[in-house]
Amino acid sequence: MKTEMDTQIISRSPAIMSGAPVFAGTRVPVQTIIDYLAGGHPLEKREVNAEFVTTVPEVGWAGIQNGDLLRLAEEKFHVFLTNDRNLEHQQDLKRRDLAIVVLVAASNDIEDLKPLMPAANETLNSVSAGEVVYIRATSLQKDPLV
């Protein structure tokens, strides 16, 4: 019988994130969650149902844009959630090891985005690298790029 002590939560490998401690089975650095919690952001208030959720500023990527931002994101994450409707027209996303979920709302205010979250959370479980999925208030449009 496996006990809690037998389950590895943190792993380290030179082949993953240059050897930084990560949550086992992911490319999410442990330091990211420590910084997140230290910043006073309680996890239970997040609307996104995923193993780990962070924002561009929280990982220190504020000011990084376009292809550079996507390159960083695909090294650490499997899904990139954004409200940038032009992203797929500006970047060659089918070559990325990253799925893109675009929230289409009247603004980026939480009140406008919150109604889209049930559909976004459902999509997170099925979207694959190279796909772009648009989440709109009235419909879900899935556009595979591969």
Summarize the structure in words.
With 146 residues, this protein is α/β, with parallel strands linked by helices. The protein has two domains: 1-45, Arc Repressor Mutant, subunit A (Orthogonal Bundle); 62-146, no CATH class. It has helices spanning 30-38, 66-76, 87-90, 110-113, 117-124, and strands at 10-11, 22-23, 79-82, 99-104, 131-136, 140-144. The strands form two sheets. A four-stranded mixed beta sheet has the order 3-4-5-6, sandwiched between helices. A two-stranded antiparallel ribbon has the order 1-2. Strand 3 (79-82), helix 3 (87-90) and strand 4 (99-104) form a beta-alpha-beta unit. The chain is globular and about 45 Å long. Mean pLDDT is 75; it is low at 1-5 and 41-45.
